[in-house]
Amino acid sequence: MIELEGVPELVDPVMVAAFEGWNDAGDAASAAVAHLDRVWKGEVFAALDAEDYYDFQVNRPHMWMDGGVRRVTWPTTRLSVVRIGDGAGGGRTRDLVLVRGIEPSMRWRTFCNEILGFAHELGVEMVVVLGALLGDTPHSRPVPVTSVASEEKLARSLGLEESRYEGPTGIVGILQEACAHAGLPAVSLWAAVPHYVSQPPNPKAALALLNALEDLLEISVPLEDLAEDARAWQTGVDQLAAEDSEVAEYVQALEEARDAAELPEATGEAIAREFERYLRRRDPRAPGWGEGPPGRATGPGIVGGGPPPRRSGSGDSDGTDGSDGARGPDRPDGTDRNREGGEDPPTGDG
Hints:
Strand content: 15-25%
Structural class: alpha/beta
Helix content: 25-40%
Oligomer: single chain
Order of helices and strands: EHEHEEEEHEEHEHEHHHH
Number of helices: 9
Strand order of the largest sheet: 2-5-6-1-7-10-8-9
Distance between the termini: 28 Å
């Protein structure tokens, strides 16, 4: 039995979760949840016991100094709660339960059951899990985000797809499946990250996930400097790609394929969604609107000295980049992030 002390009664709560690791290409998903926690000043109310779920030789503790006192931060998953005022909540107040951590090394079923225990005790109405995968998508175009529901009835009610994915999965897929078995509505939002520039951070993909979350929950998220960071990121990749003719040609080929495939999306429903988001952001009651100084983002690097090998079709069935060499940098404490993107196809992993 999970006992929660100090957590107020929540209003229409939705759980939003993201996990570092296999399902977090470019750190986009975990960065999106971290942004929500920061702009709405989330208060941590629970943390899972690291001993139960993590191999510390894979995810090592981090040593740091606190005023001359040595401290240890253990890898874990933490839960916080944020309240969205009526200005950003589509005319009503509601709460988000944010779940952010690292994909567990073991006991995945127990891990998901513990998360669901918190959801049950808090009266969570729906779970939204964010993920990011590597794909054949150009950095210069809008980031594709796919929304997948846990079961057919929910998919119909929200106008989403029902997951048909088959293949290896990560904790995002396992948690969504656990929600379905528990009768808790669950949706996963997947951002596609260019596999030729997979190193974190990727603020453009994080921004795309937040925009998709806004549309799904009909809320307005204060973006602060994230939009400027996304523009700076794209400019940095543009400059790096221009320095290598082979990479530039490869990016151009991706752009042409993307434009040809998504020409109908330039009108109709896509424009309507963008206009609705614009109107929500004009609400002066939305907290954080217009605040925050312009941000800066460092330019990311491009994997390899030229374009990655082409594959048959527009993407592999498992959604990976077909290479074991696409990895993000190590953590500050020297541990390996092992960023291989997501295993899931552009349709997302249920």
